[in-house]
Structures are given as C-alpha cells and as structure tokens.
C-alpha cells in the first residue's frame, strides 16, 4: 500500500480480533471449501438465485459466472464490492462486513490481531470471511496486506531485504523466488492479496520511500517486475487459486519516484514541531513531459501487465504536471482518467482492477470545497469516473458508499462504469478460487518463517551486499581475526529490517525473530576474538580489525523524507532528522575506531546511499548493506568470504548531498560511486 496509516491506528491498541467466535471458521475446525459452523457457503443456493445459479457452478467459465452474478446484484451490493475497509474498523464488530457488504478488508502497517501469531491471523481472516458469506449472495471478501519484503506485519515471518537490496543483486530469478516464498507465507495465514511489488523508479534519494524501489534505472526495475510472477505464478491468472499464490499489486502508478523536492517546504519545516511539518517530496508533484514520464515511470508496468499479468494496480498519491501545457496545473493520479483509464486500461490493456491507495481520493482537490480534507461527492465521482474500481476507505466505508450511491442516482456516475468495476473485482475473486474455497485451513502455517525461506533470505542478503571500496584486499576477513565490532546497527534487528516491519514506520530494537549482523559474525567467525561496543567506548586493541556498522534507523513514507517531519511517536532513535550523510554520532564512531585500528571496515545499513566522511583515508573497506531484513548473517557470509561480493549499486552513490538528485546519464555525472559499481572478491 502506500497509504499514510492513521496516527490513531498506530498509537492505539488494536482491538482484539484474533479469537474465533461461534459460527466463525477457526484453524483445525474447517477444511478447505467447507463451511464454518453455522454459516452458509457458496455452492448452496442464494435466496432468489435458484439452485442452478450459474455463478455457483465451478464448471462454468469465469466470464459466465461473473456475468450471472452481476445480473443478480443490487446497486448497493455492487457499491459494497467496490469498498475496502480496514481491519480495525470491523474487528470489534465483524458483522459490519455483512452490513456494509464489503468487497474487501485490509490491514494497514502495524494493524494486527491482538495476538500477532500465524494462528491468530488465520482465525481473524476466516472469521471475517464468515461474515461476508452470510450476505444474500454469499460473495466472499478478499483480505489485503502490505507484504512488501515478506509478511512483515506478522512477527515470526521471514523478512527479506527491501527492494533496494534486491535491485543490487541484479538477479530476477532470486526476486521471483522471494515473491513465491512471500506468497506462501501470506496465503498460509488466510490472506489472498498483497499490495506489492512497488515498481517505482526512484530518481531522488531524499525521498523517504527510496528503499521500496529496485533502482533508479527503469530497465532494472522492469527486469525486477518478475516479482509479480513470483507472487501470482507463471500461468496467472490460471493457478491463482493455489494455496501458495496471492494476487499481486503493481504500485504506485505512476511517477511516485519522480516527484520534485520542495525546498521551500524543507525551509519552512525548520524549527517547527514534527506534527506541524510537511512532507518534502513524498506525495508531491512529478513535473515532466509525457515522453519522459512514459520512458522513466511507466516502463516497468509494461512487463508487469503484458508478461506477468498483474491482477491489481494501485495509483500513486502523487500528482503529474505535464510540461507540454506549462507548469502549474498538476493533476492527482487518483483523479486522472487520462492515465488510469486511457493509458493503463485502454492502451496497456490492463484487465485486472484498480485499487485506490489509503484514502487516496480524499486528496483530490474539490473546487467547491478546497479546504475539505475528507470525502465529498466531487471526490468520489472523480475517482470512480477516472477508472478506480475499489476504494481503500479504511475508516469511512459507509460514508463513501452513501456518497457513491447518491452520485449514481443523480446520474453523475454511469452504471456502466460501476458494472465494469465490479466485473473486474468479481473476476479476481473467481480466479482466486474464493467461491469454492473461501476459508483457509491451518495445514500450511509451517510455511511462516520456515528454514527454507530463511535460507533464501540469507542468500538474498549476501547477494545484495555492494563492496564500494576494498583497499589492500581488506575483505574478505579471516574467521580467526581479532575483531572490534562497533556501531549502533551491528546488533539492532529493527534497524536492519527498516520500515514496513511489524509496524508502518518500523522500529528500532528487538522487534522480530532473526539474526543481527553481530550474531551472524559470531556464527560465521567462530574462531574470532570479538569485542562489541556500540559507541566505541570500550578499549580498542590497535591490532584488531575494526568492523563499524552504522547507518539509518527505520522510516517509511513521508517521515523518511530528508528535511521532512520526524516520527514523533516512533522509538527514540527514529526521531532523528533524516539525512544523506551519516548521523554525527555514527560518524564519530567511524572516526574513532578507524583511527585506532590497523584495518577498518565500515558497513552502512540504510535504505539509500549515505555519505561517509573519510578525509584521512582511514576506511579500508566500505560496504553498502542496504536493509537486509531478518537474516543479518548474510552480511557476515560475504565479510568472511563464505560467499563472494557480487552486488552492484542500484542507485548512484553521491559524493555530496548537493549533487542530489543524481542519476546515471546525467550530463554532469561525478558521483563518489557510479550506478552499477560493485567490487568483487572472487
């Protein structure tokens, strides 16, 4: 997803929704395709439908089933299918799913059952499904989640490197395997739909979502669109009903990685409390010609749609301002019929459905109510008529439905547009097999955090490491070395996992099971003598090799923008001002250790390039580790030569912040390390 998760959702305890209630499906009580106790299940006749209703016959083609079901639906039922609410809005009273006729429910970042376990997730989704199946036509709901680097909301799931690290691997096969492993873990917990992958082409590393991009080059991002195939399977839409596949989402269409940095906002933010500061680049305006827009930002969607047949697409929060007609009249992507209907659906031939981002249409300017931040009739009809099919209305589902029904009745939204949207949504549900197997059995919960998936993640970490500098062949290190390990990111699994992990913005500290980089060093270099001192306050043996692990603390959209607001409700380390240079305390540890030891290795754990000062040339080896996720031992594997360094920069590494934005192909291109740079050790 890309949505800004409501602050209340992040700070307030989640309603308890992980316990099964009478009449709900619970693990161990319901077999696939069977009914939860006390509930109806598709396959039995719906009232008024007749026992031979075509949409309930799995032998019929999907197109016939969709047409039959659509013909039986009231306008209220159709609008319900176009509505998606957040888990927290229905968890305390799941009957709202039936009352609102919801087509879908989602979890925002950090929105989990009270007991954040695989079993609790499965019980919750099955309970919600029972409510959807209690409605007149028994149309199952879809559950969606942001599993952007593994099933990251779920404690105990495998957390893979973020996309920036996967881009460094240059390995589409590996990316496809990671997509499949993610699909296995997500579907095992009852969830059918993943709001991933992000196919943004990040052109300015001041953007707080840079790590969600595979890189700055559209050709690289286009190759990594194979992540869609990993999630959905190679034969999609056939095979989407398998228990190891989920519906994928290509996001954020389009141009989210090309928004212009707002220097005036950055200056205005200075001195203000965090809650009064504004984003400096996220959700901004992409100022571009149509030709450059298609070349840079639309390009990755072409293989996602035409080769991998992605099932859903999510528009960007950002706006586009075409230079052909003069700058100053931007259009919100959620309001652009030209791009959603004209380009995406008609020219590119996208046959799936379009899901809005988190309250995305709320940001459409209403000429009649310019100060209104919520829903208005204008915003609703503009979004629907632009071509959005399902609307992520986390906390305002009933209001959205009320407004849309009124717009239909007034003739401002044609029924043909409604029928097109619902037809697309129902098609996906039939393809997912939800009418035959609406509930998920607990027999695949062992997929979550499995040894096989963790081994795959460790391989990905090792392949993502980029060796920027290696003077005197400092790396690989000898396993029997004397090591002085310093830096705050050496033993902090939350920092190495980054944002969209357990919570929306992520968190520093021991937030998930896995292996830190320090633990990986201890595992791989069993014969080493290791001194660990995060702040380098412990005495330093001059004969030791220094390994200093520094970098960023977690952040997600908006709050990761350089010059933007700090995350005031996050952990204390996250409340630092975001920067493209190391934090002063990090730089001080680098300076102290590298001045005291014979050989010094600096490992940077970050979502984007970080400029490390080294005027005296004391850093012997410099490694870009990106955000490795739960398997930090993969970093140790390359430091000690178990695996070679093979990663290559997916982003240009600037020589100074003043160079940003800097991208391969620029006229004045003099970075510290160019795009594609990466030394090898074998």
TrEMBL record:
A biological process from GO: glucan catabolic process
Keywords carried by this UniProt record: Glycosidase, Hydrolase, Signal
Every Glycoside hydrolase family 3 C-terminal domain range: 466-679
Family matches, as SUPFAM superfamilies: (Trans)glycosidases (SSF51445), Beta-D-glucan exohydrolase, C-terminal domain (SSF52279)
Reactions catalysed, as given in the entry: Hydrolysis of terminal, non-reducing beta-D-glucosyl residues with release of beta-D-glucose
Keyword Transcription regulation: no
Protein's UniProt keywords contain DNA repair: no
InterPro entries: Cellulose_Degrad_GH3, GH, Glyco_hydro_3_AS, Glyco_hydro_3_C, Glyco_hydro_3_C_sf, Glyco_hydro_3_N, Glyco_hydro_3_N_sf
Region (Disordered): 13-54
Signal sequence annotation: 1-18
E.C. no: 3.2.1.21
Broad enzyme group: hydrolase
Top-level taxonomic group: Bacteria
Family (UniProt): Belongs to the glycosyl hydrolase 3 family.
Record PANTHER family: LYSOSOMAL BETA GLUCOSIDASE, PERIPLASMIC BETA-GLUCOSIDASE-RELATED
Name of this chain's protein: beta-glucosidase
